[in-house]
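Re: beginner question about structure tokens

> Can someone show what the tokenized structure looks like for a real chain? I only ever see the sequence side.

Sure, here's an example I had lying around. Input first:
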Amino acid sequence: MKKTIIQERSGGDRKPVGVEVIGLSKSFGSQSVLREINLSIHPGEIFVIMGPSGSGKSVLLRQMAGLDLPSAGSIQIDGHDPANPDTRDRFALALVFQAGALFNSLSVYDNLALYPLEHRLCPKNEIRERVLRALKILSLENAAKKFPSELSGGMKKRVAIARALVMEPQLLLYDEPTSELDPVMSATITEIIATLKNEFKVTSVVVSHDRDLALTIADRVAILMRGKLLFVGTPAELRKATDPAITDFLNPQIDLKKPRYLQLEAS
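And the corresponding structure tokens:
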């Protein structure tokens, strides 16, 4: 990361936005996924949402992005509904998908330029400047002409983040940004998220299983289990948590005499 490059991007009058989740519940048919979630995400912070698989983390993130509607309750971004098209015009939001969601038939450059070109977000010369700037910030200049099939997993993650930066977001949502990466690349992506938060005017919400990411760079962490919010607090407060469900999630003990899968089958 080159600080001077990032400082060029961070100008302007855009401010990070806050997110309010108010009594939010979400069901799919008879299956209840989220149950009366209430939380506040402060402008400019890194807020990490953790929990076991199937706890509703990614569903909550999609609600924040306005991709799904709640069954009850609401989400507000600086007082506005993210599902309302006017809100998306008012605030710049970007979502970094877990699998990257890159178009295999397009080069890296064209992946970054596609959305702003199709939606005419700004003149073509400005889109080019944004794309080149994002590639430079993520050290991807040499990959601009490559296709996703030619990239490593870590490079695909960086391209997905670069594509989000082209939107110059005020709210940046990450869905499992370190999944399927080796420890070194996971640390690299973690550093990128922290650097972008510190140098850009952006609020970052990160869904992750990555304990090291949460405890290292989060301003606050939320723990979701079975669709319910069990904890919200700083990493220091999380380390002191005594709830057995939380401590077992963060520091699971391997017991070969009483393996977990047998307990899951019995439940």
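Each token stands for a local structural state, so reading them left to right follows the chain. The beta strands are 19-28, 31-41, 46-50, 72-77, 93-96, 171-175, 203-207, 220-225, 228-233.
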